[in-house]
Amino acid sequence: MSKQIRTLLIAGVAVLVLVALLLGLLFLLPSGEEEEESSSSSDTSITLLDKSTDENGDTISDPVSQAVFSQGGASYTIAPDEEGEMRVAGFDDLPVSTSAVSAMANNFATITATRKVADTSENEADFGLDEPQATAEITYADGTVVTAELGDETPLEDGYYFRLSTDEAIYIVSTSLGSRML
User: Fold this and answer.
1) 81 and 170 assigned to the same domain
2) Which residue, 15, 63, 96, 159, is the most exposed by fewest CB within 10 angstroms?
């Protein structure tokens, strides 16, 4: 009989341990709703500038009227030619896809950041913004002119430090935006 009691005790303890583990998992693991909320909040981006629509909310077909990109002492300008097609000024003779040039300029119609790292530019050298790697002076269809500055790549190589002339804050933008400016 002691063998049967011992077997029952072991089985009972095993059941209690399993119930305790199950309860622990239920209380410690987040529910599915919380996971959805946390994943959506981690995917948020900060809209720094949006010139893709007018004040009525209508989409503007060509929100960028001119863009001047500068890097390492060299610069080039994207502006419309006589026919209204976006071209790289000074390279009118070269066969370049006007849709690709237009897309390059219009990439700056809406500028988003992944996160804000500083409210002011006091420590701009820490972010490579005292001597930016690249700048873009964008003139929009409404006449607004904004200068964008690209600083150093982040230590995790997940973006670049970035600043707009309309804002003192320093942000991190995607590597794709950074590579478009470089």
Assistant:
1) yes
2) 15
